[in-house]
Design a protein that fits this description.
Helix content: 25-40%
Shape: extended
Radius of gyration: 26 Å
Strand content: 25-35%
Structural class: alpha/beta
Largest sheet: 6 strands, mixed
Number of helices: 5
CATH superfamily of one domain: ABC-type transport auxiliary lipoprotein component
Number of strands: 6
CATH architecture of one domain: 3-Layer(aba) Sandwich
Length: 202
C-alpha cells in the first residue's frame, strides 16, 4: 500500500511539473525595441526603412521647387506599396510608418488614402442629410494631393542546411500627379539577415 501511495505521489508531482513547464512565459518589452525571431520582415524593418527613406525624400529639390512655384507646402498621398515577396506582409504597417514620418517632418502636408477618404465622404454625405447647417461639413472642400508615393518590397532567400540568408530591398518613388513626372527615386533600402538553425533541438 505504501509503495502504491509513493508511486501515486510521484505521478502527481510529474504531472504538476509538466503542467508548469508548459505554461507560456510572457515578457513585456519596449515596442521600439528590435525583435527578430524568424528573420522574416517585421515591424522593426518597416519602422527603420521609413525613418531612413523619408528624410532622404524630403531633402531633394522637389519640395523647395513646389513651395517656390505655388507658395504652399507640397501635398502628398501614400499610394500602393506592393508586396512582391513570397511572405505574407501586412503593408498597412509600413504605410502608416511612411505617413507618420512625412507628417512629423512638417515640410509637406499629407492627405488620407482612398479607403479613409471613402469613409470621410460617406460621413459628409450623412451630415448633409442629418446634421445642422451650423456644424455640417461641406462636400467639395478636400485638399487635392500634388504627389503620390509608390513602392515595393522585394525579397531574395538563400538557404543551405541549417543556415539561411534573407535579403529585402525596398524601392520607393514619388510622382507628380498632374504631370506623371518622377520627382524622386529612393536609393534602394536594403536589409540582410542571416538565420542559423540549431542542429539539435529538444
Amino acid at each position: 500500500m505504501k509503495t502504491i501511495l509513493i508511486r501515486f505521489s510521484v505521478c502527481l508531482l510529474s504531472i504538476g511539473l509538466v503542467s508548469c513547464s508548459s505554461d507560456p512565459k510572457i515578457t513585456r518589452i519596449d515596442p521600439s525595441e528590435t525583435t527578430d525571431l524568424s528573420g522574416s520582415w517585421n515591424d522593426s524593418d518597416a519602422r527603420k526603412v521609413s525613418e531612413t527613406v523619408i528624410p532622404d525624400c524630403l531633402s531633394h529639390p522637389w519640395v523647395q521647387d513646389h513651395t517656390r512655384e505655388t507658395g504652399k507646402k507640397p501635398v502628398v498621398v501614400v499610394g500602393t506599396i506592393r508586396n512582391k515577396t513570397y511572405e505574407h506582409i501586412t503593408t498597412d504597417t509600413f504605410v502608416n510608418d511612411l505617413q507618420r514620418a512625412l507628417v512629423n517632418a512638417g515640410t509637406v502636408s499629407v492627405v488620407a488614402r482612398d479607403d479613409i477618404k471613402a469613409q470621410l465622404r460617406q460621413e459628409k454625405y450623412d451630415q448633409a442629410n442629418f446634421v445642422s447647417e451650423e456644424t455640417m461639413k461641406e462636400m467639395g472642400k478636400e485638399i487635392g494631393a500634388d504627389f503620390m508615393l509608390f513602392g515595393s518590397i522585394n525579397a531574395i532567400q538563400d538557404q543551405i542546411k541549417g543556415k539561411k540568408t534573407m535579403f529585402y530591398q525596398i524601392d520607393l518613388e514619388l510622382i507628380d500627379i498632374e504631370t506623371n513626372e518622377k520627382v524622386w527615386l529612393s536609393q534602394p533600402a536594403k536589409i540582410k539577415k542571416i538565420i542559423k538553425r540549431p542542429k539539435f533541438g529538444l
